[in-house]
Amino acid sequence: MKKDLINREVSWLHFNARVLQEAMDKSNPLLERLRFIGIYSNNRDEFYRVRVATLRRLIKLKKDKPEYLSYDPLKILNQVKLIIQEQEKAYMATYHEIAAELKNHGIKIIDDLNLSKSEGEAVETYFKQAVHPHLFPIMLSGLSYPDNLKDNAIYLAVLLKSSNPEIEENYALVKVPTSRVSRFFILQEDVSETKVMLLDDVIRYNLGEIFLPFGYDSFEAYSIKFTRDAELDIDNDISKSFIEIMAESLKQRKKGVPVRFIYDEKMPEVLLSKLLKKFKVSKNDIIVAGWKYHNFRDFIDFPKLGQKSLWSPEVPPLRHPDLPLYKSIFSVVNQKDIMLHYPYQTFSHLIDLLREASLDPKVRSIKMTLYRAARDSKVINALVNAARNGKSVTVFLELQARFDEKANIQWAEKLHDEGVKVIKTIPGLKVHSKLLLIRRKEEGKNVYYSYISTGNFNESTARVYADDSLFTSDERIGMEVGQMFQLFETPYAPPDFRELIVSPYSMRTHFLKLLNAEIRSRKAGKEAWVILKLNSLVDEKLVAKLYQASRAGVKIQIICRGICVLVPGIPDKSENIEVISIVDRFLEHSRIYVFANGGKPLYYLSSADWMIRNLDHRFEVTAPVKDESLQRELYDLLQIQLSDNCKARLINQSKVNVYKKRSKNEPIVRSQLEIYNYFRKKSE
Q: Is 132 a catalytic residue?
């Protein structure tokens, strides 16, 4: 690995450590800290399913074809294990600290060991009514296909004994049905104290209800969990539709190779040995001795209990000042470009737009890309309604959106059944761009309304993800967005784009040219600087060009939430580069790129991070922001974030996740709160 680059897996673990820092941060409300415990856990599971799984595949590849790799994946995997082990200590200590503090606030998380008689009766009643119908135990001796055990689900491995000497000791597996029943049972809720029991312990307390009829009267239950390789192996059988291929690949994912097996460290050795043998888990696999509880991701949805001070205050999304109620959105955008900023401004503007388009007799067609939709998607319902009203509706629905493949297959079938034209997925090239195009007949000519976003058309994530969306009637942009939809159907005949920057064709080249222009400006004594806001910075060609620009004296400021392989502050290499990462209540998801351009700054919104997958293997769109008032708005937002001295961490190689220091007389700037206040003042 090059010394001037941070390994991407290590950098990602540093990002997840920032999430864990939010759980540790005592300035956050207590139950918000618990939610960050859940986010950290969920992130780590996905890391194993995708990145660790990939490393293991590369280890196997390197054994067969060592010249294919420029680094040692085994060495990186060992480094990853050590980092995660250290994080695990802080993670568990933080959870226990939060649980103890919750107890001081009257919220007590209890187990199955010390229940009073009345509490035991309440747990038994709840089990019989709400839990038992969803339990289907498996005797370990009869388990023929361990591959069928669900990925990332919690199972209780139960040791069964009997006081009857004729009944031999036995073993069973019980899946904890968290997809059907809440992980949290509120056993008691009153003014003085609230008691919460995890579903695992509800089942532990009632194992007799399951196994007493079979003569067993002594039970020990220990949690286990599999994490499997989540990468899909796509079959190239041309006789099948792509939906059929994806559906079959999803079935194979459920049986993916285990990349991690977690078990309760108190499990008897004899039971552990039987499980490892039955599951065909070897000493070479990642076997983790953990606590009695797994899947802390469920704490993301911990019930809203206790005083209001235990939660972050509500931040109601604001209306855009130029989009008042009961006014045609088309009439506004026909006169000026509009930019929406989620979650600070309401996503309902987009729903209102689609609703207006579905009813407006002047609207002829609606085209949209969909990558991740909400579970009960108002966006999709609005598109269906438009089709029912006779509009021509076309949707590119990406079936290869990781972990949303199944939902997207179902949405594709629903849209097709409702008369919506669904453009099929392009194998090997994901469509990650976020585009909406509405064609409207005005005074006998076509007017194109384009909506280009950094985030998904998803009303659920729009309350949590910080994204920006440009809404414009610019004819040139509208024509090129239309060409994008043509490109999705014939991807091997790219048009000549003049306004949009599109990958996998020209995006990296375009950004390299812009960086070269900044280098020339600097040498000519002109204004030269760059501001980048993105999720991940991985592409080595662009990183090398950023280093070159820094050496030339170009000032570069980067806000990078997640992976950043670039190392700032290296003398004579990157000393003109500053990188910060902001992790706070909202997930920073937007991509904004600004270049000084010799004193006439260029502003862009993009769906693409600076990663190989975004630049070479996906359809992504970067769009110019031309309106000067919107440019000023973006500049203001970036400056607020660059001034953050509360939730911003400095990214470098020697010190990990050091908070940006605040000078003695400097005011506190928590950028997400400041941005909300910025838009609130505008709306007033």
A: no
